[in-house]
Amino acid sequence: MSGAPLRDADPAVAGLVDAEVARRATTVSLIASESVSTPGVRAALGSEFGDKYAEGHPGHRYHGGCEVVDELEELAVARARELFGAEYADVQPVSGSVANLAVYAAFAQPDDAVLALSLRHGGHQTHGSRANFSGRWFTPVSYELDMSDERIDYDKLRDTAMFYKPRILVAGASGYSRHIDFAAMRSIADEAGCILWVDAAHIAGLAIAGIGPSPVEYADVVTVSTQKIMRGPRGGVILGRAEHADALRRAVYPFVQGGPNMAAIAAKAVAFAESATSEYRDYARRVVENAAALASALVDGGLRVVSGGTDNHLAVIDVTELGLTGRAAADALGAAGIVVDKAVLPFDPAPVALGSAFRVGTPTVTSAGQTVSDMAVLAARILDVLAGAAR
Ligand code: DSN
């Protein structure tokens, strides 16, 4: 309890911070779900707000001394509602996954059917994986991509929804590179009589920049992660229609969470303000341009990109033709300083642990100022490394 700076107080942790800084400086991150938090976000995240307990919501706290954090949370909520165009916002969820848990708590009872994109076709573990609460406590039903174009087949999805009549229809993915037709999703949910939840963790940062469709006007509830394209702190947000406000509020606190991380809420408020600027919109546009350029250069180099390309910040690259597994490709690229995630193809015959693909995303390289011409260089290096690994 020396009060000394980190380097003196804990040389071991300080050394690991240095090692992570060095790792970042010497590698290129193409992890689609990562970006680089801004200096303002980092300052807020390290602020005194992190020490304050504030169970409850503004005006209704369990703890004393919450006058300032009430003001802070109200500011963050107002900014979130304005930025996303939402009737209701809760900025307390500590992560996207926890925000998702709160959505189940608000709208579903144990064993209710929840219809979502299959994990193997680009969905997320909180959308019904048996290894996750969502698959253990609820009844997961999946839809898949169409085999011919590797895109969502909305007619087939409608038939599936009408057959199962789920409690919730989930739109949103971790590995889908095409715009989702939220209007079609709304009409399917209406016909099947279910809640439409859009997990916009990946694409929210594009929607607020006017790039790609915004889910808010169509969905009953939308979940967002602030650390992805938005360059905010690690954390979640729930947006919803006013009619669902009470259920969503109670689902977050007291059902799922105790005291929120007020420093993260401060950092989210900063990120919301920064994301409302023309500078941010320009960055988001460049994220998408870079993803398209990277995917197209990889295709020109002989690789297949799932669905033939990308509309957003990510692409899934098939390495079957090289005789590599996704894991071998990701390992080879990692050893060459290019950090990617291994991935599975839709209809992948390989086990999930290996996969036949890798996923790339461009928020981090774009945050670092890289442009379309840098993507050509990066693609050439990726092709070189994979050719070496395939020998
Ligand atoms: N872990 C995230 C991803 O990489 O897609 C999902 O939230």
Summarize the structure.
The protein is built from 15 helices and 15 strands. The chain is α/β, with parallel strands linked by helices and 391 residues long.
Blueprint (SSEs and pairs):
Blueprint: H1 6-9, H2 11-26, E1 28-29, H3 39-45, E2 56-57, E3 60-61, H4 67-84, E4 88-90, H5 96-107, E5 113-117, H6 133-137, E6 139-143, H7 154-164, E7 168-171, H8 182-192, E8 195-199, H9 204-207, E9 221-225, E10 236-240, H10 245-256, H11 262-275, H12 278-300, E11 304-305, E12 314-318, H13 326-335, E13 338-339, E14 341-343, E15 357-361, H14 363-367, H15 372-390
Parallel strand pairs: 1-13, 5-6, 5-7, 7-8, 8-9
Antiparallel strand pairs: 2-3, 4-10, 9-10, 11-12, 12-15, 14-15
Helix pairs in contact: 3-11, 4-11, 5-10, 7-8, 12-15, 13-15
The structure holds D-serine.
Q: How large a portion of the residues is in β-strands, by DSSP E?
A: 5-15%
The SSE string, one letter per element, is: HHEHEEHEHEHEHEHEHEEHHHEEHEEEHH
Mean pLDDT: 97
Overall 3D shape: globular
